[in-house]
Amino acid sequence: VNTKHTIYDDGVNPFDLIEALALGDTIKGDIPNHSFASCGYYDVSLTVIDSGDVCIIVPYQINSFDPSLFYDTCNQFRVQILSPGDPPMYPPAMTIISEGELGWSLDTQSGEIELCVPGFTMYQAMGYQMGMYYMRIVSTEQDDVTAPLDTTNLLGSLIRFSVSGISGQVVSFNIVDQNGQPADTICAASDNIGLQLISPQVQSSNYVVEFNYENQIYGYFLWNPDIHPWPNITFAPFTDWPTGSYFVTIQEVEKGFPGFGFSQDGYCVGPQSGPVYFYIQGPPDVTIEGDRTVCVGDTTTYTSNFSDTIRYCSENSEIMQAPYISSTYFDWTFLDNFNIGTVINLSNNEITIAWTGFGPAQIELSALGSCGSASNSTTIIVSPTANLILSPDPDTVVCEGEWVTLTASNDQWVSYNNFSWMVDCDTLQQTLVTANTDTYTFEADSDITFTVHVDNDGCPDMDTITVFVVALPELETIDAEICIGDTTQLDAFAPEATAYTWTPSLGLSDTTISDPLAYPTLTTDYVITVAYDSICPDRTDTATVTVNSALADVNNDTTIFRGDEVVLDATGGVTYTWTPSTGLSDPSSPNPIASPDTTTTYMVVIIDADGCMDSVSITVEVISFLFEPEVPDAFTPNGSGVNENNNLYVFDVGGREGDAVETIVFKIFNRWGELIFEATSRDEIIYPNGGWDGTNRNNGKEMEVGVYVWLLEAQTVKGAQIGPISGNVSLLK
Asked: Above 80 in pLDDT, residue 31?
């Protein structure tokens, strides 16, 4: 903003001055060409008005070079601008450009000066250029007493003072052709395009030019008037640019702006202009529109766009288009080497052909227009129309579950046919075959209608075929399980049956009824064949009779001493029954504890998980735990004497062959006390094992007839001690 200073000077009429002031700032100033009555401060009233000024605060420090200097109350510290050189744009280096024009402060001490740069237009009107100057702070009064005065001002610190700016106006321009005339349509290969800048023409600014195609930036250019002077700039023909509608925008930027693609932050950038449209027109459009694959019997029209478009701008800068027939010259040529077509119409931008045979043909098109010439050609392939034949024909009837094969053939095209088999909107099979026949196989479960389509390269045919399905009569059997020796009844549920046959016949009461009794001894699959009054074949099903047999098992027979016990262990069942129950801990347990007083045979009856029964027995022999030894008085080694045995034994008269003996020692001595025989286990002396055969163990010789002394000592399995006992035995011969 600017400020309007109204200063009251000792009753003199107020004097107004316009000066820069930022919001919240304080300004001190004087009025040029006005004499004050005395030095001092005066009341100032401020009125804020609009401006384009930019102000900054510049601090300064006095007496940095000469501490002895001082300043009176009317002293002004002023902003001094000096030339950087580089004539002719600037005066020679260090030439004073201005002093106090851009800012000053009434003060005697170090402080701040508000440096204000006026708006773009005023700044240039004051003779300043955009760019860099040198700047320092000087004073109007100090204690110099020797001419020239104020020489110490030259010692002020120099700093760089740079100003950037633009007009900020919206750029106005025209699009012109190579002759400088306004244009909105350009021939791509021959015409140049130019831009004519109307305003603002600011030499200190650059301009960013953007070309847009299909609402996307297609190209850009940074226009520097120092290189390409006003008002026109011309571009070469846009040979490589696509034909179509474009628009151009221009934006004023400061000289230092690097161009398109860079951030605008920190740069002076003006508003972007509105779009100005133009159209790049190419050679005539010779695109041939129409089917390239046709069928015998078709009549096809081929067209090309011979219309140009007048393009103009409405008041709202919108591109308006209106088609018109240009002065383009065109020519159609039909090359029919196989005599397969007839031209029935040739007018304007189209040709119409009736196809009477199959094979290839060619259409050529040439055109000459205002922006050049062009030509094009295309090949047309004419195929014979397919003739689809379906088999079986007519529609067929099958039995439920039957596998059916349908056949489709095209008798007009013998190779490379594309067949599709569809039901409703679902494609079940699509096949490209090298021949003219295709098949589809399926299992029939209900009535179904197929739509069959054949395409021999664009000339299709279609037909339908229906397969009617007769439902199979019901047949249901039930499997059974029995125990060996039991009987079950089979049942074949077939309400519409006329005859039954069961196989095998073994184990059946009747093979020709629906529900015979079955009593096989082994698991058997019985197959039932049922006949119906129908087109469907006889039906078969299988009823399996599973024969289960329980298998009982028990541990081996065993022997215990009277008073002892043993665990009986049976397997194979889920329930167990032992008989007799005498001496058993639990007659229903698979492993009861048995402690009979006498030898007992137990039988266990089991029932397994299938409910089948089996039995098995085990004998528990009970023997005495006593040992009562007895030694004969005499024996004859050859068995001819009083002892019929060849050997001398110890007999167990209280037990069973010494089963109760844990340890035993039996010795025989001759009359001189010599040990001639010794047994240390029951198998060596207790009948019927071992025994003394009448020989000397020391030398194997037969002993003489005589009396010998025996000695016996034993211990039973229950710990009872027997002996030592002794006696005499006579050896006889």
From this structure: no
